[in-house]
Design a protein that fits this description.
Blueprint: E1 4-11, E2 14-21, E3 26-29, E4 33-44, E5 47-52, E6 58-63, E7 67-72, E8 76-78, E9 95-100, H1 104-107, E10 109-117, E11 123-132, E12 139-147, E13 159-164, E14 170-174, E15 192-196, E16 218-221, E17 225-231, E18 238-243, E19 249-252, E20 292-294, E21 300-306, E22 317-322, E23 327-334, E24 337-344, E25 352-357, E26 363-367, E27 372-381
Antiparallel strand pairs: 1-2, 2-8, 3-4, 4-27, 5-6, 6-7, 9-10, 10-11, 11-12, 13-14, 14-15, 15-16, 17-18, 18-19, 19-20, 21-22, 22-23, 23-24, 25-26, 26-27
InterPro entries: 6-blade_b-propeller_TolB-like, Glc/Sorbosone_DH, Quinoprot_gluc/sorb_DH_b-prop
Organism: Stutzerimonas stutzeri (Pseudomonas stutzeri)
Protein name: Oxidoreductase
Length: 382
Amino acid sequence: MLHPVIRTALCGSLFVAAFVFAAEPQRYPSEQGQVLVKPIVEGLENPWALAFLPDGKRMLVTERPGHLRLVGLDGSLSEPLGGVPEVFARAQGGLLDVQLSPDFATDRLVYLSYAEAGEQGMAGTAVGRGRLSEDLTRLEDFEVIFRQQPKLSNGIHFGSRLVFDREGYLFIALGENNQRPTAQDLGKLQGKVVRLRPDGTVPRDNPFVGQQGARPEIWSYGHRNQQGAALNPWSGVLWTHEHGPRGGDEINIPQAGKNYGWPLATHGINYSMLPIPEARGKTAEGTEPPYHVWAKSPAISGMAFYDADRFPAWQHSLFIGALVDQSLIRLQLDNDRIVGEERLLKELGARIRDVRVGPDGYLYLLTDAGNGRLLQVGLQAR
């Protein structure tokens, strides 16, 4: 049992509660040795995503009900920061991903994705940015730079993950709001990966710029509910993953203008056990097959490539959180080929919402619960 020592302090106008866990890391088996899990903070309300600040000791963490908090590796947990937009906090909706500007050291911009309310009780994904104040208490001058149109969600399938590539373009991986045909409709932003400049304007070389009836923001289409995205550190190419229905969770490497099949092609069926009405099979002419697929859905969320030096046995691994399977999935890579899979931390019994590699080479996980936790994960190799 964990016995936290709880400290409180007042830092400027920001109240901080510190949860310092005295227990030794818990140990769990793996193919490479023992996985070490150390709780950093608990008491988070359905945390969704994290982003490390440049000092490597603190991070921003989103909570789905609409809070953005500052968390320290010393266990400090801030009160909610000000200046965060109002969110549609219903079912799967709320405050979702967080990403720092590539130029954060000079512009201090923080990007957030979130569910935004529209008319008649419907909602869609929005992305905005604000400047983190010098005293770390609020986002200043927050502005919306992207809105998913039209707003079609009654509370599910918002996506969404944010990734900057090496050229500074912003990719947004979106869900299809559980409105299946929209993923194939180039006039709608559901079920798409979009590509923007950091200010939300559209790059001229996006694949559908100038095409009548198509949204110029679109990079790729035919996606279902994307809850993982990361830039491959060796190739510089975007990878995403998405939930299938009952079966058929998949990884894709989205290419400009390509169609990734949903709902025309899927390895899954409806939750009712009936076929997907629009599906033509596991493949469909004119669509790209998934790069990797799980016949039985782990319910994947979060994605991180491991390229740190701290744990050599994890080099060239892709880590993915699993909600239903309650595990951390490790995929072993040989260049871009997936050559092995391992399920870790099932003994925790926790829904893993996000996974990131910290500047210190440890993995950091968020567990999806009303009393969610931030966990530091390392490896004691054989």
